[in-house]
Structures are given as C-alpha cells and as structure tokens.
Design goal:
eight-stranded antiparallel sheet; mainly beta
C-alpha cells in the first residue's frame, strides 16, 4: 500500500488524518462567489470569479477554532494541506460530509485548487480544520 502522506505537505495532525483508509484533508478557509467569472471558447475572455471569505465565528469565546455556518448553496473550500506535485491523486468527499447533506466533486489532481462545496437542505456547520476530503489513490 502506498503511503499517501509522502505526497502531502502542511499536515495538521498526521495520526488523525491517516486513521482510516486514505489521507484526510482539512478545511482552512471557506469562500463565497460574489461576482461571476467568465469562460469563453478560446480563453481570451477568461476571467476569474470574485470571491470573498465566508464569515466564521467562535461558538464560545474560549474556543481555539472557529465555525462557519453555511446555508444551502455553493461555496469554495481551501485546504490547509498542499500536494507535492509528485503524483496525481484521487480526491473525494469524506463519508461524514456526505451524510450531512454536503458534497464536492471527485477530482484527480496534482495540486489542491479551491474545491466547490455543495451544501443542501438545512445547511452545514463546519469547524475550522474539519476533515472534509480524502485522498484515496496516487498515480506517479
């Protein structure tokens, strides 16, 4: 079995992130898309969407970490971790995310872009450093 941690940098807490099959990735920041981007056929009119940090709060003044309260809709998640670029990995949502009515696409990546997060129903409360994604395979 491949040790996926060799492809990951900026790890938050390796024993926790490797306690199940794969390697879990943690959320650092949540963004909202506030103005649309543009995509055209040839790329000459390609413009990024305008994003803004989604507000987070401590549930208690003594808490070390903050929480995002996400309504149903689309967000962008940025991870704490980075990839080394030495392999293409399969990135998928964790079961814990899916069971709470949220998801993101399964991707094959060699770096970690901001990933679109879809939140449904009643929304989602998401804690800073929560494990939301898992790397499950690597192709060198």
């Amino acid at each position: 079995m491949v040790d996926l941690s060799e492809y990951v940098t900026d790890i938050v807490h390796e024993p926790t992130q490797t306690d199940s099959p794969g390697f879990d990735l943690t959320v650092a920041t949540v963004y909202e898309v506030i103005e649309p981007g543009r995509i055209d056929f040839g790329g000459g009119e390609l413009d990024p969407a305008t994003t803004a940090l989604h507000e987070s709060h401590r549930r208690d003044p003594d808490d070390d970490y903050e929480w995002w309260t996400l309504r149903d809709g689309q967000f962008l998640v940025e991870y704490n971790e980075s990839l080394t670029g030495d392999a293409t990995v399969t990135l998928q949502p964790r079961t814990e995310l899916l069971e709470r009515g949220a998801t993101h696409p399964t991707l094959h990546v060699d770096s970690l872009p901001r990933v679109p997060l879809s939140v449904g129903g009643a929304g989602l409360k998401l804690k800073e450093n929560a494990r939301v994604s898992t790397i499950v395979a690597a192709d060198e």
